[in-house]
Amino acid sequence: MQQGISLTGGDLPLFNDAISGLQTIQTIFNHELNHCLLDYYPSHYNSNPSIDASNRYFSLKNDISSDGHLPIPKAIDPRGILKAMKSQDLVYAPENVVEYYKASNNRHVFLLS
Predict the structure, then answer these.
(1) Are 64 and 96 in contact (CB under 8 A)?
(2) Residues 109, 102: contact at Cβ < 8 Å?
(3) pLDDT, tens digit, 9 for 90 and up, residues 84-105
(4) What is the DSSP secondary-structure string of the chain?
(5) What is the mean pLDDT of residues 13-40?
């Protein structure tokens, strides 16, 4: 189970340039890593390019050191649904933490906890 976000810039040239930049970075990395990466193709939303990002809610317990287990914050699981889904094989770990930010009109950015 994971959470994710898709970003699209509509058909804004600046966003399309950013997508081209990502493709250039992938090409450079792929060359440096002996062509072991898959090609990067952006997702699309309403026929416009988009960037998708996601993160798993849990990690396999065997992949995380025993001191790397974290409690699931109430801010992301206020009803305890994720906590109830956790099993002996799955843990909430630093790799699963997602920080949520909110920008205000006065250009300050706040971490939502």
Answers:
(1) no
(2) yes
(3) 888 888 889 999 988 877 777 7
(4) -EEEEEEE-TT-HHHHHHHHHHHHHHHHHHHHTTT-SPPP--EEETTEEEEEEEEES-EEGGGS-GGG--PPPTTT-TTSHHHHH--TTEE--GGG---EEEE-TTS-EEEE-
(5) 90
